[in-house]
Amino acid sequence: MSYNLLMGKKGIIFGALDENSIAWKVAERAYEEKASFILTNTPASLRMGKIYDLSKKTKSIVIPADATSISDIEILFDKALIFFGGKIDFILHSIAMSINIRKKLEYPCINYDFLKKGWDISAVSFHKIMKIAWDKKAINKWGSIVALTYIASKRNFPSYVDMSDYKSYLESIARNFGYFWGIKEKVRVNTVSLSPIYTKAAASISGFKDFLYLSNKLSPLGNASSQDCADYIITLFSDLTRKVTMQNLYNDGGFSKIGINECLISLKD
What is the pLDDT of residues 37-95, one digit of tens each? Predict the structure, then answer.
């Protein structure tokens, strides 16, 4: 059901790959809520994924950009400002990658070159995107910027390896940059902490399917689906959440507040 929450709003969505990705679901919902937007991902991801199918479905355009490259981001925003004939209203950062996870390295044994690469892609890219938007004065007053995170930023999940470090840094960027965006242009910056969701990136995490099952059992409302998360993110892009900023917001069925419960007790030896 559409509520026209984003009527007249324009944005950029980073990270859509295929129908399992959160960014894909957000794009579908943004289109249903009457937003106009640009889809972007790395050139390699554009070749691997199905983003052009999404572009056709949502009547959007695709502009390739490596979110770790300042020059690519500058070109992206220049083209966006021309395409829309002015400033945008929202940005979604849905970008994450850990080479250490892909290589199945445990946290004490991570490769530091891999660490730096993953940090740049998963966290620093968020700062770079906002810096270019800031420099180009690309976002309208009361705009909204959202990045996706996970509770491993605050708790130990051994199989999440260095990704937990990236998410901690990502959330810090949101708080710190969010202050300046708010003071200058009333732009909101938030992160949304999700339930575990089966995506291409999640598939590389050791034991992910078992954890997905356990998280669903532990959460009072069950895991939030990618569709649930997209619905929530749309409200953050809308004018309904104008005074929400610098927050890490949970959409995880209650998992983030659970301690020891009957489900865990039943697993005892």
Answer: 999 999 999 998 899 999 999 999 999 999 999 999 999 999 999 999 999 999 999 99
SS3 content of the chain, % helix, strand, coil (to 5): 50, 15, 35
Q: Could you write out the DSSP letters of every residue in 62-119?
A: E----TT-HHHHHHHHHHHHHHHTS-EEEEEE-----HHHHTT--GGG--HHHHHHHH
Cα 4 to chain centroid distance, Å, stands at 22
Secondary structure element (H or E) that encloses residue 184, with its range: helix 163-185
Residue 141: which residues within 8 A CB-CB, separation 6 or more? 185, 186, 187
Which of 26, 35, 27 is CA-nearest to residue 3? 35
User: Residue 40: which CATH number?
Assistant: 3.40.50.720
Residue 112 falls inside a structural domain: yes
Give the C-alpha separation, 197 to 201, whole Å: 10
Q: How many domains does the chain contain in total? A: 1
- How far does the chain reach from its first CA to its final CA, in angstroms? 47
- Per-residue model confidence (pLDDT) at position 26: 98
